[in-house]
Amino acid sequence: MNQSVRSSLLVTHRLLDLVALGLAFVTAxxxxxxxxxxxxxxxxxxLEPRVFLSLAVLLISWSVCxxxxxxxxSKRLANWRAELIEVFKAVSLCTLILSAAELILQWKxxxxxxLISFWGLASTLxxxxxxxxxxxxxxxxxxxxxxxxxxxxGTGPRAQQMAEMxxxxxxxxxxxxxxxDNVEQPGVIGKLDRMAEILRDNIVDxxxxxxxxxTFYEEMENIVQAAAEQGITVRLHSDLFSVRLTRAxxxxxxxxxxxxxxxxxxxxxxxxxKRIIDFCGALILLTLLSPLLLLISILxxxxxxxxxxxxxxxxxxxxxxxxxxxxxxxxxxxxQMQAQLEHRNEAGxxxxxxxxxxxxxxxxxxxxxxxxxxLPQLFNVLLGDxxxxxxxxxxxxxxxxxxxxxxxxxxxxxxxITCIWQVSGRSNTNFDYWIxxxxxxxxxxxxxxxxxxxxxxxxxxxxxxxxx
Length: 468
Prior knowledge:
Number of helices: 15
Shape: flat
Order of helices and strands: HHHHHEHEEHEHEEEHEEHHHEEHEHH
Number of domains: 3
Strand content: 5-15%
Helix content: 40-55%
Number of strands: 12
Distance between the termini: 63 Å
């Protein structure tokens, strides 16, 4: 696609967004305050300068807002969730601008309910428009149009993986021009020392670098410089780091570009929602279950000597210690008896668990089987030590026995009452598989995954799957 067509489509896209925002505003105002809309319409028909000036300022502000949030950059590699988040951010800012305009210009059309309706309608319209655009472009690309021509620097396994991705996913809209490397094999269009010449003689929109950077460190600067001189986008498939990263983000430290490598989940608006859900959910559950909590407390006091609660230091977020509460299910001297039972450990790894534990009381067996002993941890959720969903917090004793450093990445999120391994067999799951499932949860975290785990927890608890 040539530059003039691309520019025309970009201008059209921006105009359609402004039309959608205007339509959302008029619709919201008409639904909430139809009389005021009629008054504004009469002012427009009467060509009142104040109204036109106000609308012009609003549209210009919206346009600047949408552009400043990078809403019009290329989205070939972005998924629909990323676009949805960008739309929410943009519409939220546009809503603030509309609210400010109402205060400054004293518009009678705008009130709180109009703003809320505008936000919902505008978010829906803009996101639906992007889904339609994405589908349309996908069809164009599948038929060989709207393609970006790509060269891959390197011929190793990473380069072949990228080439295979381009061939298998035509909807991304990439056409492979060829490989550039210092080896002679089919598909190679030149050597590294001819980089500038090759880029000049071929139509290239993007360059994907898949060289082993540790080996070609000195050549890398020349390769990127050659692409920059001709305005070619560079994408780097790096082999610098062997650790698994959830994301790499380009950031600015003063005037210095920094590549930040994150090995834990992104703490964005989703985690704010998670904390709100945790707090409200724990508060509601504690209120509803308070009679049951009282009954269990009385039964514990009646059936065995000792306190109602078992309180133990556990490792939470970033290995910070906190006091975790459970209903006591064992005899009072259970910690002292553990050393004598170590040889019967069935959990594997550093975790200690055995079936038919002689330290467990008769009532404790029932509480453990039904997971009712975990209910006091809702207080930990209220305090912010735990989440409803997250890797289970480990006792300090178990952590001190870790023999693999990669296990520690599970501490990059707040621990929880339930997690993937608890709905996948609980104590029947071996230790390594348990840890790997925790890391999988961290890498794939979303609110939808949390809800899925919560829903699966209910039948797992009712069945008592793997409980000890």
